[in-house]
Amino acid sequence: MRLLSFVILPKRLTDFEVTYLKRMNRIGLAFFAIHVPVFCALAYFNDTGPGLAALLTLGVLIGPATAFLTLQNPRAVSLVLEQVDADVHLVATLLSTKQSSARGDQRHSTQSWYAKWWKNWSASSKILCSRLSVVA
């Protein structure tokens, strides 16, 4: 039981923690916003569709932007940002899969690509919701 007291954060947030988390969350949101033009530029130069890259990265950015603007608990916002990091990697992986399929590799059809994306996204959303319920 004593080990759990070191692992689980206390329910009360200190002023330092609130200030620090708000600053880090703002920096994290800016970092994820920078991904949009970077992914679009990479997609443009690799001929993999900058429109799709913009759509997917903006879709991933909606979650942390909404959390940043609406959630009161900075710990919850940082959990959302942590989960979005995994989603950004998922988008990059799926864009590279789409690219190999566009170059003649018929193993991945567009339909299976979207099904794979939806399956991974819904699984990560369930994990995030369960983690947020622990913070709240």
Topology readout:
Layout: H1 2-7, H2 15-45, H3 50-70, H4 74-102, H5 110-135
Helix pairs in contact: 2-3, 2-4, 3-4, 4-5
Walk me through this protein's architecture:
By secondary structure, this protein is mostly helical. The chain has one domain (14-135). It has five helices and no strands. It has helices at residues 2-7, 15-45, 50-70, 74-102, 110-135. Helix 2 runs antiparallel to helix 3. The longest helix is centred in the N-terminal third of the chain and has 31 residues, at 15-45. The protein is elongated.
Report the β-strand fraction as a percent range.
under 5%
Q: Compute the gyration radius: what is it?
A: 18 Å
Number of helices: 5
Report how far the terminal alpha carbons are from each other: 22 Å
Determine the oligomeric state from the structure.
single chain
Q: Roughly what is the average pLDDT, rounded to an integer? A: 75
Write the element-wise H/E pattern from the N-terminal end onward.
HHHHH
What is the global morphology? elongated
How many β-strands, per DSSP? 0
The low-confidence parts are: none
Content-based structural category: mainly alpha
Largest sheet: none
- Count of distinct structural domains: 1
Helical fraction? over 70%
